[in-house]
Amino acid sequence: MQVQFCGLTLNGCVYNASGPRTGSSDALAKVGSSKSCAILTKSATLLPQNGNPLPRTYTSPNFSINSEGLPNKSIDYYIDSETIKESVLDSGKPYFVSISGKSLDDNVEMMKRICKAPGVAGIELNLACPNVIGHPIIAYDMVQLRSALKTVASLSLPLPIGIKLPPYFDFIHYQKAAEIINEYKSTISYIVTMNTVGNTLMISPHSGSPVISPKGGYGGLSGPAVKPIALAQVRKFSELLDPSIDIVGVGGVQSGQDVYDMILCGAKVVQVGTCHWIEGPKCFDRIVEEFEEICRKNGVKELEEIRGKLKEWSKKGAALDRQGRKSEPKTSAKGGAKFQSTLDDSSFLLLSVAVVVMIQVLLVLLAQALGHLDVPAVAQFMDNLKA
């Protein structure tokens, strides 16, 4: 299904988030060759950055934590004609550049450079990372946010501009941010909501220490656990923003149903981050196919039929929910990831035992065939394997 997004026609509604597997033209080309409807670069800075020390990422079945420190090859790399050519290849997909400068001046300089580079479809300005030491994240500081958008508006840039926002947790903050963004609706074509949930902490039960090294173990939370937060961002901003401003939903998306939910809440298009990181670019093929199947089952032919059409709670809906959950495969009520880990460990143990038994049988057969079965030697060899 085609989607009109910030003045562009996209052949789909799912593409990659900035961050995982987006640092080089080789990685971006794999995105372009998948069913992702667009290509978005790593968040760039003026100069190349190596990022934070390792380990800086941690993944589990339900969530991920990272404190990468914006490793990237610099803005000049991502707007270089060869990089764009190698990334897009013959896919013809729009190529967006994400930027996250260390200061507003850095962002202004990068935006000016981008607009001089042919082949760029739009700019995603990351206002969800701290840029000034001793100050909050720009989009959490309403004074900074207004100042940043005022500066961007003064540039009169020819490309669509989107801003990436952090998650908000108080309705008054949604309202204040939306009011400021609406003031610049002629400049801001879309918002991307949301960035990771900042400054979370996970401790290893084995070592008693954080699972990542930078910042004392604090990092941004992403993955399936943040989907309810992301849905709330999309829904609330769809209620508050001027209709001319498109919404990109991102956070916890790993299935076609997740995409469907995002669009129900008002997203125009949807980004995939952590799932892309874990599964690779093939995730876009799977997710898009799942989404298309859900649309077929629900008789949806155009996305406008469902966009922003989230139903209000009702007794009838609650009954349908109960009925649907009863038909779902049952899982352990306790243990969660620990239960799954136990199953994985048990499966590995059974496989290991099977392999050992097979080796024993093969050794006996081989010894018989050679006519000199040395039972003590075989037993000693197997004891060594088990050890």
UniProtKB/TrEMBL annotation:
It comes from the Eukaryota. Signal peptide: none annotated. Keywords: Cytoplasm, Flavoprotein, FMN, Membrane, Oxidoreductase, Pyrimidine biosynthesis, Transmembrane, Transmembrane helix. PANTHER family: DIHYDROOROTATE DEHYDROGENASE (FUMARATE), DIHYDROOROTATE DEHYDROGENASE (QUINONE), MITOCHONDRIAL-RELATED. One of its GO terms (biological process) is pyrimidine nucleotide biosynthetic process. InterPro entries: Aldolase_TIM, DHO_dehydrogenase, DHOD_1A, Dihydro_DH_chainA_dom2, Dihydroorotate_DH_cat, Dihydroorotate_DH_CS. Pathway: Pyrimidine metabolism; UMP biosynthesis via de novo pathway. Its cofactor is FMN. Residues 2-294 form the Dihydroorotate dehydrogenase catalytic domain. It catalyses: (S)-dihydroorotate + fumarate = orotate + succinate. It is found in: Cytoplasm. The chain crosses the membrane at residues 348-367. PROSITE patterns: DHODEHASE_2. One of its GO terms (cellular component) is cytoplasm. Homodimer. Residues 317-338 are annotated as: Disordered. GO terms for molecular function: dihydroorotate dehydrogenase (fumarate) activity. It is an enzyme of class 1 (oxidoreductase). Its EC number is 1.3.98.1. This is Dihydroorotate dehydrogenase (fumarate). Residues 317-331 have a biased composition (Basic and acidic residues). Belongs to the dihydroorotate dehydrogenase family. Type 1 subfamily.
